Structures are given as structure tokens and as C-alpha cells.
Amino acid sequence: MQRAGLHTMLLDGDNVRHGLCKDLGMSAVDRHENIRRVAETAKLMVDAGLVVIAAFISPFREDRARARELLEPGQFFEVHLQTSLAVCEARDPKGLYHMARSGKIVDFTGIDSPYEEPVSPEVRLDTAAHDVDALVAQLLSKVFPSRWPS
Fold it and tell me: HEC string of the chain?
């Protein structure tokens, strides 16, 4: 994206949970706080001119709505990666779903903690029907239509 003149920052569970949110667990209260912190951090970065990609399982609609409210219209794009639980489990490189099913991890989204699917995200990507390149092209054409027309 830098070649396109855009400066980006990726925020995801790994880089946030090792620092900014390392004091949080996986309870519903901690998940709310995790997304709140991420949203506040993303807002600061957007205000500094960065394109922020916040790649999180944000299971609660209320948290996503609060994140949206922090930003100006047109700055927040809710992207739903539509994927079945079976596909998520098959693609799990860390074995987290297996650990959740065996009881080693509790409050795991989709297993013993709910996931509230977005009602009307700006972008919905079907990860079972398309390869990564096609999904990226779809995303870029929706978020940056003047730079990447569909």
C-alpha cells in the first residue's frame, strides 16, 4: 500500500495482546475493553494520517458500533470475513480451536462464547468462495474505489 502513497498500520490480536492489552483475558468484559483500546489507538493513528487495518475477531455488535462512533463518516469500514466455523477450525495454525474444544481455552468465540455477525458491514468477503488475491481486490475496490476500481 505504500507504493500507492498510503501509509498503513496493522493492528491485530498478536501485536496488541503482547503490549497494549496484555493485562486482559478473554472474558466478555475483557473483550469489550480490548476492542475499546484498539479503537482508541486506531483513532489516534487515523488522526495522524495512517490507514489502519484492525484485524480482530470483534464478537459483539455493540463494540463495533462504539468503534465506528469514534471516527468520522467514511473513515470506518466494517469488513466481515464470512467464514464457517468448520473452515475457521480447518485453517487454525495455532490450534486454538482444538484447545477450546478440549477445554484448555474458555470463552472462545464460536465455541463457548457468542459471535454476533454484522448486520450491514461495508464489505462482506466470502473466504470459502474466493482466494486471497480475489478477496484483496474486492476489499481494495470497496475501500479505495478511485485507486482500485472493480
Answer: CHHHCCCEEEEEHHHHHCCCCCCCCCCHHHHHHHHHHHHHHHHHHHHCCCEEEEECCCCCHHHHHHHHHHCCCCCCCCEEEECCHHHHHHCCCCCHHHHHHCCCCCCCECCCECCCCCCCCCEEEECCCCCHHHHHHHHHHHHCCCCCCC
Q: Is 107 left (phi over 0), alpha (psi -120 to 50) or beta?
A: left
Q: What is the pTM of this model?
A: 0.84
Give the chain's domains with CATH numbers: 1-76 (3.40.50.300), 79-150 (3.40.50.300)
Torsion of CA 112, 118, 123, 128, to 10 degrees: 40
- 2/108: higher pLDDT: 108
Maximum Cα–Cα distance across the chain = 48
If you average pLDDT over every residue of the chain, what do you get? Answer: 90
Respond yes or no: is residue 141 known to be catalytic: no
Model confidence over 16-31: pLDDT tens digits?
989 999 999 888 899 9
Q: Which of 58, 84, 141, 146 is catalytic?
A: 58
